[in-house]
Amino acid sequence: MSSPLPDPLQVLSIADWREIALDDPERFLSTLRLRLKERMEPKQSRAVIAALADDDKLMAEIAAATSKGSPLIAPYFLKDRFNLAGLPTRAGSSFLAETRPVPACDSAIVESFRAAGAICVGKTQLYEFAYGLTGQNPHYGDCSHPHFPDRTTGGSSSGSAAVVAAGIVPFAVGTDTGGSIRLPASFCGLFGYRHMPGDAWIHDAFPLAPSCDTAGWLTGSAADMQTLLGCLCGNRRTEDRKLNGCYLECGDLDEEVCLACRKRAEFFCQAADEHTRDQLLHAFRPGASCYTILTSAEAAQVHAPFLERFRERYSAPVWQRLDRGRHWSADQLCEAEIQRRFLRDTLLSYFLTYDFLLLPAAPCAALRHSECDTYDRNRILQLSAPASLAGLPVLTIPVPLADGLSAGLQVLVPSPRSPVLPWALKRIQSEYRS
Description:
- By secondary structure, this protein is of the alpha/beta class.
- It has helices at residues 14-23, 25-39, 42-48, 55-68, 108-115, 158-165, 182-188, 200-203, 222-232, 255-265, 274-284, 287-302, 316-324, 330-353, 377-390, 420-433, and strands spanning 49-52, 75-79, 119-124, 144-145, 148-152, 171-175, 191-194, 215-219, 245-247, 270-271, 356-360, 394-400, 406-412.
- The strands form two sheets. An eleven-stranded mixed beta sheet has the order 1-3-2-6-8-7-12-13-11-9-10, with helices on both faces.
- α9 (222-232) packs antiparallel against α16 (420-433) and α12 (287-302) crosses α15.
- The longest helix has 24 residues, at 330-353.
- The two termini are 38 Å apart.
C-alpha cells in the first residue's frame, strides 16, 4: 500500500520528489495535483498557469524516468516562451497562437531536462512577450507574490517564480533578457540561474531581444540549484586556490536593501577597491539606456510582422516599447553598440584578475501592485543591464529583509562551468547547517 500523501504545507525538494516517484508514480501525480489545489487560489491560477500537461502523458514520462533511475526525477513548470508539444505557445500575448501552428516538438531545454529525468507538468504565464519586469498581464491577470498577495512576483518570469515560491514544484524554467529571472528570484526569496545568450536552450524560444535573451531557472533552495547546475551545466569542482571576487555597491537602492546586500556580500568577498569600483561604475553608467536602445530595436524587428496587424491587441506599455524601438537613429544605435563593447571589454578585463563579481539584484523589495504602473524601470536596469549586455551567466542569491520580504545578490561569472557557482551554493548550505 502506498504511503500517505505528503502534507501540502511541507516543502518538497528535488530529492523528495524523486523518492516519491520511485516509490509510487501515481502518488507523484496525486501529490502534484494536491499541491496545485492547496497552494494556489483559483483566482490566481489563470494568472500563474498557462496550461497543464495531460495526466496520461505525465504518467508515461514518470514511468520512463523511474525505469532509468534518472537523477532529476521531479516536476517543473516551463515559461510559455518555450514550446511544449501539443500546447500552444502564447508568450503571454492574446494573439501569438493565432499566427502559428501548435508545436509538434518540445523545445531543446525540455529535451535536456527530460534526459535528466525531470517531468514538465505544464506552462506558466509571463509578462506580455516577456517585455516587462513586473507580474502584470492584462490578458491573463496579474501575478501575485504567493506570500504577499498585495505585491508582485516581479517578471517577466512571473508564473515560474510563483509556482516555486508557493512550493508547488521545486523548480521552474524561465528566461532572462534584462533581469526576468534575477528580479523575480529577488522579490520571491528564490535562487535563480541565468544562462548565456545564443545557447541551444534559448534558440527555439519565442524571442524578445536575441543578443540578450537567455534561458534559466528558479529554485527554492541552494541544494536544488546545485543539483540542477550539476546535472545541466556540469560545474567544475571547487579549486584548491581561494576564489577571488569583490562586491560592487551600485544603483539607486532603498536603504534597507543597500544595508542587507552589503552585509550579505561580506559572507563571500570584500568590497571592490577604489580603482576597480571606479572602472566598473564608469563602464556601467550608460548600461540602462544602452540596454533600452539595443533591445528595443531588436524587439521591434522581431515584432515587425505583427505590429500593425495586431496593434490594438498589444498592451499599451509593450506597444510603446516596441514602437520606440523602430525610431532610434543610426547614431544612437551606433553609440549604444560602442557602449556595449566597452562594457564587455571592461568585464573581460575584470575577469582576468577576479573569478566573480557581486552586484545587488534588485533596488527594492517586491513592488506592491499599486506601484507597478509607476515604478522606475531604470532603477532595475541599472543593476541588471551589465550582465545582460555582456552576455554573462548569473546566479541570484536571495537576501532576507524585514517582515519576510527579500532582495537579492547577483553572482556574475565568466562561464557556466565556473567553480564559483558550486562554491557559493555550498557556502550557503553550510551556513544554514551551522
